[in-house]
From TrEMBL:
PANTHER family: HTH-TYPE TRANSCRIPTIONAL REGULATOR CYNR, TRANSCRIPTIONAL DUAL REGULATOR HCAR-RELATED. It comes from the Bacteria. GO terms for cellular component: protein-DNA complex. Keywords: DNA-binding, Transcription, Transcription regulation. Residues 2-59 form the HTH lysR-type domain. This is LysR family transcriptional regulator. The keyword Transferase does not apply. It comes from Pseudomonas rhizosphaerae. Pfam families: HTH_1 (PF00126), LysR_substrate (PF03466). GO terms for molecular function: DNA binding; DNA-binding transcription factor activity. SUPFAM superfamilies: Periplasmic binding protein-like II (SSF53850), Winged helix' DNA-binding domain (SSF46785). Belongs to the LysR transcriptional regulatory family. The keyword Oxidoreductase does not apply.
Length: 300
């Protein structure tokens, strides 16, 4: 059976055309080298070298074999680099789920940065409701999720990658449009459009608790799953909403965003299963944090 070392012996001799110098390069004695070359020729069924007492020359078959084994070794070196890259999380496959609202904040920047840094990683992105993301991670359907911190983090790892203030979005002609800063107490008589708690408990609870802390019990008129749909419905005059500040990036002409007094801050986290050993997770999380830092600086 031909082994990689036989090819190494052959190429050393082909490049030196001298058994003594080839053996020295290979750190072996000359007799074993001669035996291995003879065995290689026997295995191939062709003569690779013409030998005489004074010189060694490659045959036509030997010249062809030398060219082809160069391709073999190039492929082997590439295989070693690929294995190392995979072990370091620079190659492979990574499945990422994200909330649609983060498409207006950090997900685009994270995706661009990671794809540029790790082009050998097959990155699969899927938009998913917050309520389903943690389950996707626990079940192994996704490697990483970009989401609000789940209520139950047992068996999960989380890292905060982005923080943003909440803001109020108002419809056309609203009575509070002239106010540069909105006191939550001024929203007591308003109809709220809010995400259902079963869909995004962290976000729902933050909004309700913020209102309650300021003596306001929110009058919930509509419960809507998607933040962009909530903003659209506000633009249609169906109520007001407290949403992440990044939703301003929808740039609707029918809505106006105003800052809140002592606004609550929502955290977006990267979540993955503790026993998921995909090495691409670590590179993704590191890249996500860097991209988020850059996005935060640009937003200031």
């Amino acid at each position: 059976m031909i082994e990689l070392r036989h090819l190494q012996y052959f190429r050393a001799l082909a490049e030196t055309l001298h058994f003594g110098r080839a053996a020295e390069r290979l750190h072996i004695s000359q007799p074993p080298l001669s035996r291995q070359i003879a065995l290689l020729e026997e295995e191939l069924g062709v003569k690779l070298f013409d030998r005489s007492r004074r010189h060694v020359e490659l045959t036509d078959a030997g010249q062809r074999f030398y060219l082809d084994t160069g391709t073999v070794f190039a492929a082997f070196e590439q295989a070693k680099r690929n294995a190392l890259a995979a072990a370091r999380g620079a190659a492979g496959e990574l499945s990422v789920g994200f909330m649609m609202s983060t498409a207006y904040s950090v997900t685009p920047a994270i995706t661009r940065r990671y794809a540029a840094q790790y082009p050998q990683v097959n990155l699969k992105l899927t938009e998913t409701l917050p309520m389903d993301l943690a389950q996707d991670i626990s079940s192994g359907n996704k490697d990483v999720a970009i989401m609000y911190r789940p209520q139950d983090c047992s068996g999960l790892e989380t890292v905060t990658i982005y923080r943003e203030e909440m803001t109020v979005v108002l419809p056309p002609g609203h009575r509070l449009l002239e106010q540069p800063l909105i006191d939550p107490r001024d929203l007591a008589a308003e109809t709220f459009i809010i995400v259902p708690r079963r869909i995004a408990p962290a976000l729902h609870d933050m909004i309700v608790n913020y209102c309650l802390q300021h003596g306001v019990t929110p009058n919930v008129g509509l419960e809507i799953n998607m933040q962009q749909t909530i903003v659209n419905l506000v633009g249609e005059g169906l109520g007001i909403a407290i949403v992440p500040r990044s939703m301003r990036n929808m740039r609707l002409t029918t809505t106006t965003f105003r800052p809140l007094v002592a606004p609550p801050v929502i955290e977006v986290v990267a979540v993955w299963k503790a026993d998921n050993h995909n090495p691409c997770i670590a590179t993704f999380v590191e890249s996500a944090m860097r991209a988020s830092e850059e996005a935060t600086l640009q937003d200031q």
